[in-house]
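BACKBONE GEOMETRY TOKENS
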Amino acid sequence: MARKRAHGEGSLRQRPNGIWELTLMVGFQSDGRRKYKSFYAKTQKEVKEKAKAYQSAKAEGLDVDTVYYFADWADMWFENHKDNIMPTTQESYQYTLRILKANFPRKKLKDIKPIDVETMLKNLRREGRSISCLTQCRGMMFQIMNKAEANDLIRKNPVRFAEKMRYREPVKRKDAFTAEEVSILMERLPDDRIGLSIRLMLGT
């Protein structure tokens, strides 16, 4: 059964499946009727936190009633940005854009956290992508999310707080002669200037 709450707190009830639902009045429709929004969670605490986060974001002026997915917003960003880059560079941008969209296919823009950006970059490195590719992906995502922040779609750009990937040189195996090989060389090298020089280097 729904329970009346204080003004602005909405109506709270537990559904038959055990899920808690909190319904808020969030404004008015074009015909003057009240507009409601419902939040769902497994516990009362969680559903209250969701509603509170929504109210807080709306109070800050964020566009919380329109759902933007990363892939859709990234396409919008590119369409508006491509006139600022050379046509020959657009193909490179589209390649990087495809990589980003493949990593966040149906992720909501507001749900992307710094840890998600770091995980993407680590996965790309495991796939064998070059440091140049990782840098381009991070740079483009920074621009995409920065534009979302500027348009009040997210509170802050998650890329700004994500750790940068540090390039690690692959460990190269050092080649060296075995003791047996050194012994053979010492025995078979000629007794001239070159042979004696090599013997000196092997000995030191």
Summary: Residues 69 and 108 are 4 Å apart (CA to CA). The chain has a mean pLDDT of 88. The radius of gyration is 30 Å.
